[in-house]
Design goal:
284 residues; alpha+beta; Butyryl-CoA Dehydrogenase, subunit A, domain 3; Nuclear Transport Factor 2, Chain: A; seven-stranded mixed beta sheet; 7 strands; elongated
Amino acid sequence: MDENTRIFEENRTHLRAVAYRLLGSVHEADDAVQETWLRLERSDTSGVDNLPAWLTTVVSRICLDQLRSRTARREDLDAEPDDGVAELPPDPATEAEHADAVGRALMVVLDTLGPAERLAFCLHDLFGMSFDEISPLLGRSSTACRQLASRARRRVRGQSDDVEVDRTRQHQVVEAFMQASREGEFDRLLELLHPDAVVCADAAAAAMGTPSSISGKQAVAEFFSGKAKAARLATLDGYAAATWSHRGDLKVVFAFTVEDGLVREIEFLADVADLDVGASRPIR
């Protein structure tokens, strides 16, 4: 048995646990692990310093692709993982902390989350990955990943009474922000922005001229005031977003993180090929 095979087999149980938590299906989890093995066989890993971490990244990306490609299909929540799939961290304190996060109840909640939220929460809270490690998987900043996980965590812990209420409020805030942006209502923008508001951009958006980072609600309001003339409202992973298109081609998606009724982060995403963007409509 070569070294790559040995390391893969040593980590198979962990990879299946990650895949099951992300997908909610034993069969799909097994398929994702098998695809991870195939990618390992096809890849040159001579420059990989941490192969277990590399394997976790690969299986997570495979699962994210599957989550994003789902349409109306829902998983059989009665299917429990077989031996090893629900393996928890060995530390007893950690086991106690996550004792309620291994059954069907968690899977029901996870099934209400968008793909990005689900991945950020599972990888960080259940498997201990840092947001800096999760960031490249989602193509979002570590701050945005932290907010995605925080939003998911509130639902898992019952701090949000109803997912649809949360989404409705998020839609209201984003629409009000985009209206204020288009109309140049600077004071209204300030009212809608979190004190620690930030704007960031993925590499593709930065290459198009978007600032890679803007911090503070004053600076963010100045950047958006009088803008959004050609933007349209849309959805991203089921949550309110905005888009900008050129000659009918989608160019940029504005992803919003809303916290306590205020816009905490706006991320410009120009690498749009794999984003789950819903139909757009004008800003009224």
